[in-house]
Amino acid sequence: MMFFKHRTKWGLIVGTLGLLIIAGFVFAGKIVNHGSQSTQIKTHQLRKNHIHKYQPLTLKAFKSHRDLAFCSVIYFAIKHVKIQRWQEVSDFNLGWQIEIHRTSQGAHYLVWPDKRITAKEKQLEPNWFELKENGRVIYHSFVVHSFRKNLTQTATVRKVINQINSDRAAGRVRGMQKNLVIRNDN
């Protein structure tokens, strides 16, 4: 009988210790798992906030960076100018080549499709635009097989910037700069 009393006492002690150890592992696992989930949630929230943080195009950036201004004007032409020929320059992957042609009326910015276009390929009069001192942007397009004047459409720099921001396209416009080549023809 004495043997069973000792054995029961040791069994209770070992059993209790075993249960405490198991409970400790379960509790520790929950703490680690909770911390891991909390970190994952915070990381996901940071990524989500970073992705959705829109950096708008500003007038200051437009005026300070010629390439950005040209890309803004081209983006607006492709997406919002109602002159059909401006769609000829709508391939964002090929890019654009701009020739700056100075005239007595100011600079004309000739827009060629494809940043690698060669002089031999420049057979048809390109689309072009003007940037006026008063903030107007005038888009021009030659009408093929016609004896009429060029088609024109006018916007303002402010309208171009506001539309780009309304489209949430400032990042896309900034990215266009890598596919823009500028040449002076005179």
Plain-language structure description:
With 186 residues, the protein is of the alpha+beta class. It folds into two domains: 1-53; 59-184, 2-Layer Sandwich (Yope Regulator, Chain: A). The chain is 48% helix and 20% strand. It is built from five helices and six strands, in the order αααβββββααβ. The protein has helices at residues 2-52, 59-64, 66-80, 157-166, 170-176; strands at 96-103, 106-113, 127-131, 136-141, 151-156, 180-184. Strands 5-4-3-2-1-6 form a six-stranded mixed beta sheet. A hairpin with a 2-residue loop joins β1 (96-103) and β2. α3 (66-80) packs across α4 and α3 crosses α5 (170-176). It is rod-shaped. The model has no long low-confidence stretch (mean pLDDT 85).
Descriptive keywords:
6 strands, alpha+beta, 2 domains, rod-shaped, Yope Regulator, Chain: A, about 20% strand, about 190 residues
Helix content: 40-55%
Let me know the average pLDDT.
85
| Helix-strand pattern | HHHEEEEEHHE
Largest sheet: 6 strands, mixed
Distance between the termini: 115 Å
Domain unit count: 2
Number of helices: 5
User: What is the CATH level 1 assignment of the largest domain?
Assistant: Alpha Beta
Computed structural class: alpha+beta
Q: Unreliable runs, pLDDT <50, ≥5 residues?
A: none
Tell me, briefly, the overall form.
Answer: rod-shaped
Task: Provide the CATH architecture of the largest domain.
Answer: 2-Layer Sandwich
Q: Could you please say which CATH topology of the largest domain applies here?
A: Yope Regulator, Chain: A
Based on CA atoms alone, the radius of gyration comes out at: 33 Å
